[in-house]
Queue: 2 jobs
Job 1
Amino acid sequence: MKQWVYLLPLVLFIALAIVLWQGLSNDSRLLPAAMLNQPFPEFALPSLASSSQIITTKDLPKQIILVNVWATWCSSCLQEHPFLVELAKQGVVIIGLNYKDKRADALAWLKQLGNPYQLEIFDAKGSLGLDLGVYGAPETYLLDQHGVIQYRHVGVLTPDVWRQRLIPIIEVLKNG
Amino acid sequence: MAKIYSIFWLVIASYSPCLSAMEVYQFDSTEQEQQYQRLTRELRCPKCQNQNIADSHAPLSKDLRQKVFEMTKAGKNEQEIKQYLVARYGDFVTYQPPMKPQTWLLWFGPVILFFGVLVVVIWQIKQKQSQKMPSIDLIQQQRLEDILDNHEDEH
């Protein structure tokens, strides 16, 4: 009994070291998505091309789609853009949610860099962004055929993320 | 010297990161204003973590302050506003996490740790006490008293 007590500090130290070690590989900027497995929030917002054209939840295609939150002030979005264009060429349906941006800037960006989006929603005040729980651009949401959010990726959508995280979910959705 | 000090303090003051309340809002009542102040202090900025939305300069915090203001003005109570934001940003957004199985360790951990330490300390004290006083027999007791008596007589 006595000897066991002297081991206690070592055991506690090892336990603490393991907890802290795990903390090192834990990115605190990644927050759990509160909107996961919930329907995409209702919205009615103008399109990027024209303020008179209103896009609503009903206009979202009834298939597996990506909703990409982007803005011209977001430098990571610039880094992400070529891969989105490539995905669109492969036939992936991407909806653009232009978040707290200037219309003219956003249109010039798409003209210059190519437009991977089937629909461009213009969310100047970030109201849909708030309903989605967006806390930074870029963010990408994966929606299933019923418009339910299946995955959220915060940060640049890289080919690695696409292969390792999104494709497995899409496979399950297609087969299920 | 005084001049250098004043320059020093001016520089410090100009870097102050805690200039809060950047917008001016008009409330219908002091209750509403107090509710707004309480909520913005208790809600956490998802972008610049470790700051509440009252202190944060992030554009997202500004949007959240605006939302809290609008909802407060529309007559929503604290609970409703918190639920609205937790539904969108998760439990992370509040500095007072709700009680549920995932947060039990957070809520009860310190209390459990305190009582655990208390039990160990009491146990150790008891052990020490039982070791400290080796009993002496009657003869030894008599001798001890004799010595003490003699000692007192000398004075």
Job 2
Amino acid sequence: MTNSFADFIKAKLILMIGTNMSEAHPVASTFVKDAVLGGAQLIVVDPRRTDMVDFAQMHVQIKVGSDVALINGIMNVLIEENLYDKKYVESCTVGFEDLKKKVMEYPPERAAEISGVSADTIRTLARRLASVKPAMLMYTLGITEHICGVNNVMSCANLQMLLGNVGFECGGVNPLRGQNNVQGACDMGALPNVFPGYQRVDNADARAKFAKAWNVKSLPDKPGMMMPTMMENLTTGKVKAFYVFGENLANTEPDIHHVEHCLQSAEFLVCQDIFPTETTRFAHVILPAAAWSENDGTFTSSERRVNRVRTASVPPGQAKPNWWIFREIAKRMGHQWASNSAKEIWDQEVSVLAPSMAGIKYRRLEGDGIQWPAPTEEHCGTPTLHKDGKFTCGLGVLKPIDWIPPAEVPDKEYPLVLSTGRRLYHYHTRTQTGRSRGINDLLGEETADISAADARKLGVADGEMIAVKSRRGEVKVKARVTQQVPEGLVWMAFHFRDACANWLTNPVYDPITQTAEYKACAVRIDRLT
Amino acid sequence: MSQTFILNGIETPFTPGQMILDAARNGGAEIPTLCYLKGAAPTGACRICCVEVKGARSLMAACSTPVTAGMEVTTNSELVHRARKMNVEFLLASGKHNCLMCEANGNCRLQDLAYFYKITKLQFREKDEKDIYPTEDQNPFIVRDFSRCILCGRCVQACNEVVVNRAISQGYRGAESKIVTGGDSPYNESECVFCGQCVEVCPVGALTEKKAKGLGRPWETQKIRTTCPYCGVGCQQWLHVKDGKIAKVTAVEDAQPNQGRLCVKGRFAYDFIYSEERLKTPLIREVDGAFREASWDEALDLVASKFKSIISEHGPDAIAGVSCARSINEDSYQMQKLFRAVIGTNNIDHCART
């Protein structure tokens, strides 16, 4: 997030795109609701009528996968009607003319045709966005989990820059991270192209710096494989050994049949986890790990805040902290690592090697944590990035972007769109929530959420078991007839193994990030009786 | 120039619009409250915060009376204390406040006030058992004991004005008054999403955590601050721990980013760590496909030797790994260091892209 959660309650205009916040980030949503009670305007852009729509002045119900077209349409109006922030665009950004040329190809009428949102609504939306400053944009996986995920993100950034909203409290572009430490895992360099602190592996100076710190002669200079490529290469034999730490890929990745084939193909699979999972079934070695409250350490939240995690109980049996396990393997491969606790790892290595976190030390994290960048120990952290439109990289780049449809769209054989996500009571594949007493009582099974119109057409009753089928697989699941879902859409989650949406989802990826298109594939519903 | 009022005889500054409660607390005067909930509109329901205001016909509720310039406020007179004590006595008679059997024992403002006012016996007749609504605990997490409810309305305000889930409201009138959900149906049949904010703000034992029962009194537990293991908001939690076991989880008040709030997962989905299904020992797959228990040395030696032989035969890029987006930063740091510095490949990723 460019901004902070503390901004939510103070924001004057909030634009939510592809975020089911009251279920996926419930506490964050309470601050948005507080802002609305205090007079803020809320606009929800989502194919579904999510619970936050109850608080919105406008619900812009777009077709799945049409975000770029809608945003181009909005920007078309902003430019046509001279409503954009000319001063900001001139002084803080580059690329306006190219962007203008592109969005001129998306008059509201064309955007309407693609997105299913009327041209009038697009005009109203654009005028509203231009009427309040700053406006705060929030998004989640509804934006990123498409084959055009990067383009969707850049469209959000284009819009906020055109409106002059980046670099101010209660403004900015704010992706809410789905997991407690997905931000931190990125920051720590668990990515194939960067060292900790986003220092590129193809930069010789960065390599020299890390090689010295890690006491090795050289470090690999070529960016590595992203996860989908790794999995694919298990079947080609290019990857022989696969080390899966705390992930249940057999349920979380698209097209489970294929994923399990990949895992099955591994010559040597190491799983390090706190529970046996659908993924550990394929392991050759399983290493038992300490969990959340059995560790001292840090998580980094969506707002770049480094927070402390503290030990409350001991791990069961012989389970060990993960950092210890990696250190022991390194030792057995001839490398002695000095740091021997999470605190030592952070204070002596992470904060020394990552300039944006140089000022963050454990002794400074006793209270509310610190938001990076915090380059020195006197720095109190950064709640708002790109302050006053002064972008970290110089000028903000406006990028012309074309809309493309999802990889698989409905046809005669598979006439419905399947979109997927999370539900309030469960988290991912339920390894944790499914084993917390009481949670299963509140939500004990998966459903396929469908509209009343489709239910009528198919002759399906609420609560009836149905088969949902895609080109990849089939699940038997209860139908849930709900107003949340528009005609033509089926919505499911991935919390329960038997009716996991990922038996159906399409393993196609954004070409840059290799994020899978969980939000759109084609399915059909068959009655079972 | 800031304006002033007279607080217990001393000229004290205040901000226009401020209530007596806030201005007096800023001025160093302690005023007890029961119904007052920061961030919500004051209701003046409990009258425990009553103070003397010169010229007023009766005692005023400090939480809901705005200060004016020159106002003379007394917070600690005998009259004030007599009135507060009587209010506490009324509340004690309004239900069955038997602390020995109460989950909130040691964490109850009514208990604190009864002790402060040295109340040793009930002055008024206790409400009859038959006039008290039965306890409702059909749901897995929250016990609603109406015999302990003082109708302060904090739960109603927390639900409607703080987390805005709009599940709880005031029901019925007069002696029949009851805090209700969904037209007086059980919690689990209402709009409730089990964030537990009502439990968090309940000043007595009317709303308590079902799972915490019997696991530890407040004076036996240690509070450990940590960060929630679920979504990416990073809510700050207190783990209430007795003998190395979490009894319950509450929110850290005034902490960023959650400011005293949690959701159903953060508050109630903590006990997975005690599941009997936890992995407790390294496991190695046998030729027949079954797993057998192994020592750390054997398992780690196997991983290291297998990695070494793959590296020598196929090169370091034949090994790939994914890190965990739920585990601590230091774990991800170590894993990428293992891959880059020891194995010699950049084939390290995690689920950021999925």
